[in-house]
Write a structure and sequence with these properties.
Bound molecules: adenosine-5'-triphosphate
Distance between the termini: 42 Å
Domain ABC transporter: 4-236, 270-513
GO molecular function: ATP binding
Low-confidence stretches: 250-270
Keywords: ATP-binding, Nucleotide-binding, Repeat, Transport
Protein name: ATP-binding cassette domain-containing protein
Strand order of the largest sheet: 6-7-8-3-9-10
Shape: globular
Structural class: alpha/beta
Strand content: 15-25%
Biased composition (Low complexity): 243-260
Radius of gyration: 23 Å
Largest sheet: 6 strands, mixed
Length: 517
């Protein structure tokens, strides 16, 4: 039986037409995937269904009754809940208060509140103390707390907007178990994701949103990730090439990534032999028990592992955010310290995180200003300004950002488009030695992932060496030359991405990570 019927939805933001005559249905007990490029309008569609954004035209029914929510609160009351992509929960709330906020149970005595929250947290397989302040939780957990909150209400339809993006494969498996349970209870799920192989494992049907319209509405068992990626971008997609370890150019300094000419990558060049970072016996009390790392010039190494494996702590020690000790630490052959010893200047590698405080940019500032922020004060003549703005337009174009103008405010871009530009800006600004990137392709569509790969290939061709920390096996397989599987505070195994196809590397990573856990 039809749960939700959507008919002729249309939505524009100013001159930008985002949804054009969108129609589809979701049946009771059905899990429907929604995919599309960054900026295609997936969140906008989810927000219209969840009462957050009003449509310009069109209508909906829920269980056969007219459904026109006036607000998110109204939608929840009528049985539709959403876990938003960029969820923000008041950090001062406890987890129990966060899970039951806005529900009829919110006013329960603390002990009962805790008990009920615990049941819901168990449903989403989240093992946290309900008394923990939300501010103490890692960001990836917020989506699961929100999912537990949606379950607290008698929700008929749940919109999950990229909840899986920051999760490990095993955690995604648990999220899928929740979706399966909702389906067996006769509830509907609209599942938005860019992680196509995993999404196809759980959904019954897939909707592709392209150019504001439903371009495909097909059963999941008739699709595979490559075909679905092609449907998403509207053109054939070849599987990603294994990364070519391109020999870096001798000169370290170069123009900014946004301004330089494209780098032609020769096939399978030998990586540079020059070791830029040498770490021996890295220890972080209670987390890392002896890790050796060797990073060559122009090389990209990946690190992955379960939450308690020590992988985050390795990265945080390298960036100077966590106190740590080593037996040997050299950057370009010079002794460095990790802050607590006097063996040389601190290492403090620059680090990029996709979820960090809205990328440290003012969301009300224009794209042009955001991308040229550092240079703004130093502009001295019109010619320089023109060159800079051309650079911004080129980056926006190359990164396929969906906007009509570089005068659009940054905060009005889709989540993925904000991430792409923030990463491009960060890569062009930071020193070109050794950098740490957390999940550089999180929340990006297939084309944007290639663009980030190109950004990495360009940077490494100019001599940058990169440590990628990630939960996503596809991202590691696409971006890295070698991947370290971390378990029990050590690197249990290195996987060379070498001559293998990307999906074979992905399978190896998943297999090794599962075995090591
Ligand atoms: N409040 C707003 N004001 C102006 N434009 C907006 C607003 N919200 C969304 N948009 C625009 O609508 C378009 C669709 O955005 P939306 O967030 O729905 O995309 P998406 O498919 O969810 O993308 P992503 O995969 O990157 O999350 C984008 O071009 C975005 O810039």
């Amino acid at each position: 039986m039809t749960l939700l019927q959507v008919q002729g939805l249309t939505k524009s933001f100013g001159a930008r037409r985002v949804l054009r005559d969108v129609s589809f249905t979701i049946d009771e007990g059905e899990i429907v995937g929604l995919v599309g490029t960054n900026g295609a309008g997936k969140s906008t569609l989810g927000d219209v269904i969840a009462g957050i954004t009003p449509a310009d035209a069109g209508s909906m029914t829920l269980q056969g009754h007219p459904y026109a929510p006036l607000s998110a609160f109204d939608a929840r009351h009528l049985g539709v809940g959403v876990v938003e992509q960029l969820v923000h929960i008041d950090p001062a709330l406890t987890v129990a208060q966060a899970v039951l906020r806005g529900t009829t149970q919110a006013g329960l005595p603390p002990r009962e509140l805790r008990r009920q929250a615990q049941v819901l947290l168990a449903e989403v397989a989240l093992d946290v103390d309900p008394d923990t302040p939300v501010g103490d939780l890692p960001h990836f957990v917020h989506g699961l707390v929100e999912t537990a909150r949606v379950l607290a209400e008698d929700t008929r339809l749940v919109v999950l907007d990229e909840v899986s993006a920051p999760l490990l494969p095993s955690e995604v498996g648990r999220l899928h178990a929740v979706a399966g349970r909702l389906s067996r209870q006769g509830r509907g799920v609209l599942y938005i994701s860019h992680r196509l192989p995993e999404m196809l494992e759980v959904v019954d049907r897939v909707l592709v949103l392209r150019d504001g319209r439903i371009a495909l509405d097909a059963p999941a068992d008739r699709l595979d990730p490559v075909r679905l990626a092609a449907e998403t971008v509207g053109e054939p997609v070849t599987p990603p090439e294994p990364r070519v370890a391109s020999a870096p150019e001798p000169a370290a300094a170069g123009p900014t990534a946004a301004e330089e000419a494209p780098v032609r990558l020769s096939p399978r060049l030998v990586p540079s032999d020059e070791v830029v970072l040498r770490v021996r016996n890295l220890r972080v009390p209670g987390a890392v028990e002896g890790v050796d790392l060797l990073l060559r010039r122009g090389e990209v190494i990946g690190l992955t592992g379960h939450r308690s494996s020590g992988v985050r702590e390795i990265a945080d020690a390298l960036s100077g955010e966590l106190p740590a000790v080593t037996d040997e630490l050299q950057l370009f052959g010079e002794e460095r310290s990790l802050g607590s010893s006097a063996d040389g200047p601190a290492l403090e590698l620059p680090v990029y995180r996709p979820d960090e405080d809205a990328y440290g940019v003012d969301p009300g500032e224009t794209i042009a200003r955001t991308m040229t922020q550092e240079a703004w004060g130093s502009l001295s003549d019109l010619r320089t300004e023109i060159a800079r703005l051309r650079g911004v337009i080129r980056t926006v174009h190359q990164m396929d950002v969906k906007t009509l103008s570089i005068r659009t405010v940054f905060g009005a871009l889709s989540g993925g488009d904000q991430h792409k530009l923030a990463l491009a800006r960060w890569m062009s600004e930071c020193a070109r030695d050794v950098v740490v990137l957390h999940e550089p392709t999180r929340g990006l569509d297939v084309r944007a992932r290639r663009q980030v790969r190109r950004l990495l290939d360009e940077a490494t061709a100019h001599g940058t060496s990169v440590v990628v920390v990630s939960v996503d096996p596809d991202e590691l397989a696409e971006c890295c030359d070698r991947v370290g599987i971390v378990a029990g505070g050590r690197v249990a195994r290195w996987i060379d991405t070498g001559e293998l196809a990307v999906d074979a590397v992905r399978d190896r990573i998943v297999e090794a990570a599962t075995a090591a856990a």
